Amino acid sequence: MNVLVVGGTRFIGVATVERLLERGHAVTLFNRGSRAGLWGGRVRELHGDRRESLAPLAHERFDAVLDFCAYTARDTEALLGVQGEVQRLVHLSSGTVYALDPHLPWREDTPLGPAELWGDYARGKIDCERALARRPPSVATTIVRLPWVLGPRSYADREAFVFNRLLDAEEVLLPGDGKALQQFVSAAQVAHALVAIVER
Q1: Tens digits of residue pLDDT in 90-130
Q2: 107 with 96: CB under 8 angstroms?
Q3: Where does 1-157 have alpha helices with state H?
Q4: What is the pTM of this model?
Q5: What are φ and ψ of residue 148, in 5° steps?
Q6: Where are the domains of the chain?
């Protein structure tokens, strides 16, 4: 397949591009170019700022689009303006879109928030999802609401925080009196799932 990855040069994006290449897909990246050349010419790279112009994508045709960096409805609407007919579109959203609910784990049909805790980030992700809901039902649109993601190249580095607390013999506070079920997945697991969504 010919796959467009919007973003894709950090954390989960890197793992996903590597998985796409392992599976034999042709990959085109569109991003600002701040981390160009990660794959030594094995991917096609188009550079630009999605908030200024998606013109480089206007005459391109892809079998699938994976969007790693839409944070506002405007981001999503602009992409749909140039790639709205793509047959498979996968949007990376976030578990932060849900309203806070003391009953865990949260089900997919848990009402949307956002909780003020997550601020503009969660509000923006909800707006992106609403923009995607306007796509025709005849084309495959998948929204992936990720829980906590761990793994190499994470810019949040959650594991190091916990490990350092343990090494320093400091307390590690557990949410919800320790009974809250937290969902953790690895970047590699997310990458495998995203590529499976695209392929199926």
Answers
A1: 999 999 999 988 777 788 899 999 888 889 999 999 999 99
A2: no
A3: 11-22, 73-83, 119-132
A4: 0.91
A5: -70, 130
A6: 2-199
| Three-state SS annotation for 135-147 | CCCCCEEEEEEEC
| Neighbour tally for 161: CB within 10 Å | 11
Alpha helices in 69-118 (DSSP H): 73-83
Helix axes 119-132, 73-83, angle to 10 degrees: 30
Whether the CB-CB separation of 24 and 14 falls below 8 Å is answered with no
- Homologous superfamily, domain 2-199: NAD(P)-binding Rossmann-like Domain (3.40.50.720)
> Structure tokens of 141?
């649109």
| Cα–Cα dist 154/138, whole Å | 35
Task: Quote the tokens at residue 105.
Answer: 């784990």
